[in-house]
Design brief:
The complex is a heterodimer of chains A (313) and B (550). In chain A, 36% of the residues lie in helices and 27% in strands. Chain A has a six-stranded mixed β-sheet, with helices on both faces. Chain B is α+β, with helices and mostly antiparallel strands. In chain B, the strands form three sheets. In chain B, strands 1-6-2-5-4-3 form a six-stranded mixed β-sheet, with no helix packed on it. In chain B, helix 1 crosses helix 7, helix 2 runs parallel beside helix 7 and helix 4 runs antiparallel to helix 9. The chains are: A alpha/beta (313), B alpha+beta (550). Chains A and B meet through strand 5, helix 2 and helix 4 of A and helix 1 and helix 6 of B.
Chain lengths: 313, 550
């Protein structure tokens, strides 16, 4: 078990360059316990961070420690780590059970132990009914889950998931999210990366935001969200009669203005997004108008990053 | 001893290692099994060996024609007598007018050189150049030096001989139904010969008597090798008498053997004071190191005893060296080993394997192990298949030649060592450069093939910097260990100029550190091959450990 002295994951002034290109830049980080979302747009350095942790890459400067051990030098910490790589390739000719139990044997399990553990984790990720089917016949969501199963087979203390929700349909997404939340509630340290704010928000509150290789923010998502909420936001509503709806919004307290977008959609401007969303259903019901869509164009990672970067500069 | 979880120590260290090795090896085998290219290359190898076996079985079914090693069973001049019989009677084996009992040509007259003239009569005409108008021409015999082939005379072209057309020596052409033109030809006929700046002699054959022609088979395998097994005794015996020549005429034509003219017969060629024997020279260990026969002694041995066994061993050694080592040994690794680690890196599936507590170096070793199980297993099964066929059908009194199978297993062993070495080399090349590795591997494959050919040719120094040299050397050693008399067969074949496959495919092991022991040369070869394999694996491991994996 990790102690305070040796956190599961520790980066000290860690940088990684690929020639002239920066992977991550001077990142210091310590994570131990709970689910942590690693948030950042594509190319922010999420995968580089994970590959440094998994000893695939050697840091250009600084230190990386996994349970106090340098993963570039020693593979011993992998006994306690499960890693779900970004790669989508799998051994398509193997069955799910085969795949997981073969890899389990690399932890030194006997064939029988490996087979039992594989059945157990495949059940945990909800694949027990297809475990004897070839992976080549799996759906995208099943493939992601079989990858998660292989990472869990040895009951690790730390699980690293690189974009586990990427490309999954909503049902698979929900089931994978619940698996990750379960792992967190079992007291494991979980790192999960994503470039979609909403996904992370549904999994955890503890986040690390990476941007252009730099550590931009670290902490509670809600605290960061609250800061963001207090900044100007737009709510985009498409309706048959935007002018009539605009009239209904103007008197509302959180709303400080309305605008009509070029395509005729109504833009409601607010400084308090959560408060605005509280009044939104009532206003719409009262107006009796038919609504085709409601969007929060500023409630995404890009907006958050824009806000954070803007603050920083 | 127990560890904290209560497992035995042996359990924690060795069995864990074994489980990892087992898992990666098994994964590698299953991956290779799921690739089409694996099956294609194995099928091609299998078909190649089946084709060779078909040739082998075809050769056996055709049977073993006895070989006339000295060429004296052939009737070279077409007079009906084999050359060996003509030697005994002192007649010329290349002249159809000269045969046992043919007698001497008695010349009755001739034209003067360059004169113009006519002569008529029933004669034997010799060295005739001119025109012959005849009433009878003997067409009973054909062939031989200077003898006119009466049956196959072509019509003459228009014009004069030597002015408008030309005839070869001993040839002629037909001018009319009963008229021919000849150039320096011999024939028998009744008619008028006309010369114009030509020549002809006429006469008859004297003192002829009837000699029954002997069958050619009397002169095949007629002088077998007579070897007492003791180099100090007198060895070799002139079974057919063509060395001793007792009762032969004084003027015997030049000795003829099929590969050369031997103008001076020497019945004590080896100079040991014994006429018509064979000197067998042994070293201090009693191994035959050289054989020097007198002329025409033991020169036409029985194929049943020698060539059959020689050809059988040559098939096994040749197939082992060329099909197993030089073809399977190089091509299987090219197809199966090059991508062992490279393909995993390119696919990204390496991440699953390397996120487990396994050292990258270990990983490479187990991958090569898995490849060796597939390639080596194939080679082993193929060698047993070959062994069963050759052991059942080969020459000799025994129903099953067990030693054949042992040699085949030795060939499989040597090939597997080569597969390991090439596998380690090619896998490392794939690691070093995923794009150019295959080209470098092809160059190495060609280089190894050339070195193997040099080794087959007997080169001992240049090819030492190759895997194939040591593999072939190991096969040479194993052959000599299992069949110690191979070296003797090798020397016999050279000494009596016998057609031998062993001399083509087998050389005495070269690297014996002066001991001449096949065990030493075999051991050195195994050590060198294992050393190359280990060094290449260690080199690959060190490269892979430093590699950043994207």
């Amino acid at each position: 078990m990790s102690t305070k002295a040796t956190p599961a994951v520790l980066l000290e002034k860690c940088s990684k360059w690929y020639g002239q290109v920066i992977g991550i830049n001077d990142v210091s980080l310590a994570i131990d316990g709970g689910v942590t979302g690693i948030l950042g747009p594509n190319g922010a350095g999420k995968s580089t961070l994970f590959k440094l942790l998994m000893g695939r890459l050697k840091p250009s400067s600084g230190n990386v420690r996994l349970f106090g051990v340098d993963p570039w030098v020693s593979t011993s910490p992998y006994r306690r780590v499960g890693y779900v790589a970004e790669t989508e390739k799998l051994y398509d000719w193997m069955t799910g059970h085969d795949f997981v139990s073969t890899l389990a044997r690399l932890h030194g399990m006997t064939r029988e132990e490996a087979s039992d553990r594989a059945s157990h984790v495949l059940d945990f990720v909800g694949l027990s009914d297809v475990q004897n089917k070839e992976i080549g016949k799996y759906s995208k969501g099943m493939r992601q889950r079989v990858k998660i199963a292989h990472a869990l087979v040895h009951d690790p203390d730390l699980i690293i998931l690189d974009e586990p929700l990427h490309g999954c349909d909503p049902i698979a997404r929900t089931s994978i999210m619940s698996v990750i939340r379960d792992l967190g509630s079992q007291g494991k340290t979980v790192l999960v990366s994503s470039h979609i704010l909403d996904e992370i928000e549904r999994i955890t509150e503890q986040i690390v935001i990476l941007h252009n290789g730099r550590l931009l923010a670290l902490g509670n998502l809600h605290a960061i969200r609250d800061l963001l909420d207090k900044h100007p936001h737009r709510i985009l509503i498409r309706t048959e009669n935007p002018r009539k709806l605009a009239e209904s919004f103007v008197p509302e307290d959180p709303v400080y203005g309305v605008r009509f977008a070029e395509d005729g959609a109504l833009e409601v401007l607010t400084n308090d997004l959560s408060a605005a969303h509280e009044v939104l259903p009532r206003v719409i019901v009262d107006s009796g108008l038919k609504i085709t869509s409601i969007e929060n164009p500023d409630d995404n990672l890009e907006a958050l990053l824009g806000y954070l970067v803007g603050d920083a500069s | 001893m127990m560890d904290r979880q209560g497992r035995g120590l042996a359990e924690t260290v060795w069995t864990r290692l074994d489980r990892k090795a087992g898992a990666i090896t098994e994964l590698t085998i299953r991956q290779l099994r799921h690739r089409l290219s694996t099956w294609v290359v194995l099928a091609v190898g299998f078909l190649l060996l089946i084709a060779l076996l078909a040739l082998f079985i075809g050769g056996i079914r055709d049977g073993w024609e006895p070989i006339d090693n000295d060429g004296d069973a052939h009737d070279w001049d077409g007079d009906g007598y084999p050359a060996g019989q003509e030697f005994k009677y002192g007649s010329d084996p290349f002249d159809r007018f000269s045969f046992p009992g043919s007698g001497e040509f008695v010349e009755e007259g001739s034209f003067e050189w360059g004169s113009v003239g006519l002569y008529s009569g029933n004669h034997t005409w010799r060295s005739a150049t001119g025109m012959f108008t005849y009433t009878w021409l003997d067409d009973s015999q054909i062939g031989g030096g200077g003898v006119l082939e009466v049956d196959s005379l072509e019509p003459c072209p228009d014009g004069e001989l030597f002015e408008d057309f030309w005839l070869d020596w001993g040839e002629g052409c037909r001018m009319d139904v009963n008229r021919i033109v000849v150039h320096d030809a011999s024939f028998v006929g009744n008619g008028t010969f006309r010369v114009e700046e030509g020549y002809a002699a006429w006469g008859y054959m004297e003192d002829s008597f009837d000699v029954e022609p002997e069958p050619a088979s009397n002169y095949i395998d007629e002088d077998d090798i007579d070897w007492t097994g003791d180099p100090n005794k007198i060895n070799g015996f002139d079974d057919d008498g063509d060395c001793l020549r007792i009762g032969w005429p004084e003027e015997t034509p030049p000795d003829f053997v099929w590969w050369s003219w031997e103008p001076n017969h020497d019945s004590d060629r080896n100079g040991n004071g014994v006429d018509c024997d064979v000197e067998w020279i042994a070293d201090s260990n009693g191994n035959i190191v050289a054989i020097i026969p007198d002329d025409n002694v033991d020169e036409d041995p029985s194929e049943e005893n020698l060539a059959y066994e020689d050809a059988h061993r040559a098939f096994i050694i040749g197939t082992g060296k060329i099909a197993f080592v030089m073809i399977l040994g190089i091509f299987l690794p090219l197809f199966l080993a090059l991508g062992l680690v490279r393909d995993e890196t390119e696919n990204g599936t390496l991440h699953y394997l390397l996120s487990k507590p396994i050292h990258r170096g270990e990983f490479i070793t187990y991958r090569i192990l898995g490849y060796l199980v597939v390639a080596g297993g194939f080679v082993l099964i193929m060698s047993l298949m070959m062994g069963l066929v050759t052991a059942s059908l080969g020459p000799g009194d025994s129903i099953f030649r067990l030693k054949d199978v042992i040699v085949w297993l030795g060939i499989a062993f040597a090939t597997i060592l080569a597969l390991a070495a090439y596998g380690a080399i090619f896998n490392t090349l794939g690691l070093l450069s995923s794009r150019y590795g295959v080209y470098i591997a092809l160059v190495i494959g060609v280089y190894e093939f050339v070195m193997a050919v040099l080794t087959l040719g007997g080169a001992e120094l240049i090819p030492v910097l190759s895997v194939s040299h040591w593999t072939l050397q190991l096969i040479d050693s194993i052959v000599l260990i299992v069949w110690p008399n191979t070296i003797e067969m090798h020397i016999i074949a050279s000494a009596f100029d016998l057609p031998s496959g062993i001399t083509a495919f087998w050389n005495p092991p070269a690297h014996t550190l002066g001991t001449e022991s096949p065990f030493i040369s075999g051991l050195i070869s195994v050590i060198v091959l294992l050393l190359i394999t280990s060094l290449m694996i260690i080199f690959g491991q060190s490269q892979f450990k430093r590699r950043e994996i994207m």
